[in-house]
Amino acid sequence: MLNRRILRIKAFKILYSCAEDRSLSTKDALALFEASAEASRDLYLFVLSSIVPLTQEAARRIEAARNKFNPTEEDLNPNMKFASNALATILGEDVDFCKMVEKRKLSWEPFDAAVRNLFDSISSKDYYKSYMESSEVSAAADAKLFKRIFEEEFEDNEEFLSIIEDMNILWTDDLGYVLRYDISSVQDIARTGRWNCPPIYTEASDHTFITKLISATLAGYDRYFGMVADNVSKWDSDRLFTTDTVLIAMGLAEAENFGDIPVPVTINEYVEISKYYSTPKSRSFVNGLLDKLIKEEAATGLIPKSI
User: In terms of C-beta density within 10 A (0-12 exposed, 13-18 middle, 19 or more buried), how is residue 142 classed?
Assistant: First the structure.
């Protein structure tokens, strides 16, 4: 589920905490990382599970309209397309999915007002109206609708953001990536007719990669910090940003320990992370100094690959 860019970002956040609190051990760091990785899948499940209560809300409104004192013809003969969508049926009947959502305590039941508000927003949109008016009835059409819902109704929804922040502080930063994964998941469900629980690590080797990266960065952090400090003036070394130092330390640890990853890829990964988590000047600083230090280490044989 988590690609290497996301794994590096999560590792960076843990290592930043370790740099700020030197009492945290490697064991602590790895445990924090595993919790963060698990939290990403929990958010994926929480978003995906919204399909069922949203569908139930549509059905509830249809039934309430039918039972009015003086129902209209439309109330008595409603458009059941959304209320009968295939994705909600597949997920609602999937024992493994339901058990996992229950075990992880990811129910939408405490948020019935949010579900109503979310459905109000969805049902007011042109994309929903087009879906309801279309004669196509298929899981593919349902998946296309939920793709739009995940794209447009969650990321900038203040009520939803408040809910996930209260549920797990780790979720907010993961939302954009998780929504894209949920979109991929509904498309797979529509194509195959079943849900498959995604593994946290896309490849088995990814767990080994991130464990080794975190351990190596912590083991060599003091040396890496010294290398950075030696390459800036005394005045600048006193003002080094922890974010930049951690990113450079991670880059050095990766270059030293993963001979199969090209150096340009390593440098690019940490430069990209610096754009979002450090200062405006960090991109050029991380890029330039990491490139210089890796070349120096390669020249002395500490990095076992050509540059």
Answer: buried
Looking at the predicted structure, is the pLDDT value of residue 239 above 80?
no
Q: Which residues of 187-216 are buried (b: 16+ CB within 10 A; e: fewer)?
A: bebbeeeebeebeebeeeebbebbbebbbb
What are the residue ranges of helices labelled H in 203-306? 204-219, 221-230, 234-237, 242-257, 263-277, 282-299
**Which pLDDT belongs to residue 267?**
97
Q: Which residues contact 17 (CB under 8 A, 6 or more apart)?
A: 24, 29, 32
Q: Return d(Cα 57, Cα 67) in angstroms, integer.
A: 15
114-168, pLDDT tens digit by residue? 999 999 999 999 999 999 999 999 999 999 999 999 999 999 999 999 999 999 9
DSSP assignment of 74-102: HHHS---TTTT-HHHHHHHT-HHHHHHHH
pTM reported for the whole predicted model = 0.93
Residues 6+ apart with CB under 8 A from 92: 52, 98
Report the alpha-carbon distance of residue 254 to residue 214 in Å, rounded: 9
> What residues contact residue 20 under an 8 Å CB cut-off, 6+ apart?
242
Structure tokens at 176: 């954009």
Cβ neighbours of 184 (radius 10 Å): 13
> How many angstroms separate the CA atoms of 172 and 22, rounded?
26
As given in the structure block, the two tokens for residue 283 are 């991109």
pLDDT digit string, tens, across residues 57-112: 999 999 999 999 999 998 899 999 999 999 999 999 999 999 999 999 999 999 99
201: phi then psi, degrees, rounded to nearest 5: -100, 125
Residue position matching structure tokens 């600083």: 285
